[in-house]
Write a structure and sequence with these properties.
Structural class: mainly alpha
Strand content: under 5%
Number of strands: 0
Order of helices and strands: HHHHHHHHHHHH
Helix content: over 70%
Number of domains: 2
Shape: flat
Radius of gyration: 31 Å
Number of helices: 12
Distance between the termini: 93 Å
Length: 237
């Protein structure tokens, strides 16, 4: 008879495959464990089944909620684009506004986007603190709209006189997925804010970045002029 074990050495996977008695022994041990711990096995198995069912149920629920929210938001976006900002925010009595979509569909992607639109709407209305609150609630992996949200927070802070915060958000916008279409505009905003703070070195750096890295941008020529204008101040400092 072939021994199931080599004395002093544990079974390897290969030994188990080659030794039917070893396989039978392992099966017997497994059955013995299941018999002794039947209650525990049922509890763990039931818990896993509940978790899996809850996961799929939640995904189904949130998908349907998101579709409903997107349908509801269509009219609000139309009002926003038409500058009917109160209707965009509050609704028109028949259609929900962005604020109601946020409240009623808070966990959906549509509600997240509604925060962006609400923030932009409040910014246009001159309600800058509300604008900042909503824009800071917005989060997106989109390479352009997230940078735009940062820049809008910068605009709101500029209006409030929080120039340092404005610079911080303009630079967040500029550093988020840098590209020649949007980044130079954010750098210009940061440069202007830095000049208001009399931080001419940082302003110069913003213009210099445009001149060196974004030669095909529409802001290039202006950046060259502003860089030359600041050069003497930077050197004097």
């Amino acid at each position: 008879m072939v021994k199931s074990k080599t004395k002093g050495k544990p079974n390897t996977g290969e030994e188990l495959l080659e030794n039917p008695e070893a396989i039978a022994e392992q099966i017997s041990k497994t059955e013995e464990f299941l018999e002794k711990n039947r209650k525990l096995v049922f509890i763990v198995g039931g818990a896993l089944a509940i978790i899996i069912a809850a996961y799929f149920s939640y995904n189904y629920w949130i998908t349907n909620k998101n579709v409903s929210a997107q349908n509801e938001m269509f009219q609000a976006v139309y009002y926003f684009e038409a500058d009917s900002l109160d209707k965009a925010l509050q609704g028109d009595g028949n259609n929900l506004g962005f604020l109601e979509i946020i409240e009623d569909y808070g966990m959906t992607d549509a509600a997240n986007l509604a925060h962006y639109y609400a923030g932009a709407s409040f910014l246009k209305k001159g309600e800058y603190i509300s604008a900042i609150d909503h824009l800071n609630e917005f989060s997106s992996s989109d390479l352009l709209i997230q940078a735009r949200a940062y820049a809008l927070v910068g605009d709101a802070n500029m209006e409030l006189g929080n120039t340092k915060d404005a610079v911080r958000f303009y630079m967040k916008a500029a550093d988020y997925n840098p590209n020649e279409y949007t980044t130079p505009g954010y750098l210009i905003k940061a440069a202007v804010a830095n000049e208001l703070l009399e931080d001419y070195g940082s302003a110069f750096d913003c213009y210099n970045t445009i001149v060196k890295e974004y030669v095909n941008s529409s802001e290039y020529q202006n950046a060259r002029k502003q860089k030359a204008r600041l050069e003497s101040k930077v050197n004097a400092g």
